[in-house]
Amino acid sequence: MFTDDLRLELGVPGPITQQSFQLLGKSTTDTWIHSWWKFGSRFGIMVNDTGPDLKKARANDVFLREAFAAIPNISADDLYLLNTCRMFLRVVTLSDITTVKGDRIEASILEGTPPLQTWHDYDWPRQQPSLSVTFWNAWKRAIAKVFVNATETTKLTNPLGEWIVDPAENWQWYFSERINRLYRKTEAATWQIYQPRSLRTTRSGNTEYIISDDPTEDTLPEDCIMASVVEPRRGAFRLTASASPQHNFIAPVESQPPTSLNEAASRLEHNKKWSIQKLRL
Questions:
Q1: How high is the mean pLDDT of the chain?
Q2: Whole-model pTM?
Q3: Sequence spans of domains, the chain
Q4: For the chain, give me the number of helices (H) and strands (E)?
């Protein structure tokens, strides 16, 4: 295991040795890096690892691990259950388990089905093939307590807002309302078309889409928007949400170059500031 693997297991940003080993250590794999973290925690030694940090994706986004750790009287055993579910699903923040619209939890994720897509492409360590109902019951209780405050609904109490990272690079599914088609990005960066299984009108959200006989397309129709999709049956997909225009990603305005060394140092990423303690001109 490398530091990137441990960082994904921890599920929180910042230097690894700043995290509470007493609370989080049980939820991580016992390797030499785990022992290094334990040693540093015991003797108050902080090591600034230089690996890439985890990020939030949207306004109001939160790290799942931090949200779970903040539950009153949460135990290390409970955190182990929740973190094992999180790793199985390969998710880091709330935006990973909500629909693209950002107003509700994707229902299939509550039942232990990993999302078909996320905005990131982290290289996850290998996971066990399945988890028992004990894990998923704990997962559903925690999600209800922290994010929706009711076990009978998936609607968020604090919906997500606009994207603060660009999700388009790794987003796979798009929807055209004009022609009622789903589009999935292929490994060749073309678009596979999915058409309704039946031409009959069905209740909203119940239409199943299957792969079309039409050839893949090089570009998307102009009206396509990002979509959340689940696979209730093998080879049959269902649209659960489509993106809201007000939540589109807006690229930040490129900042001007720094005019001094002090200004340049202040702009360094958190995990790189260790190399500069004090500047004297």
A1: 83
A2: 0.79
A3: 1-54, 57-161, 173-247
A4: 8, 6
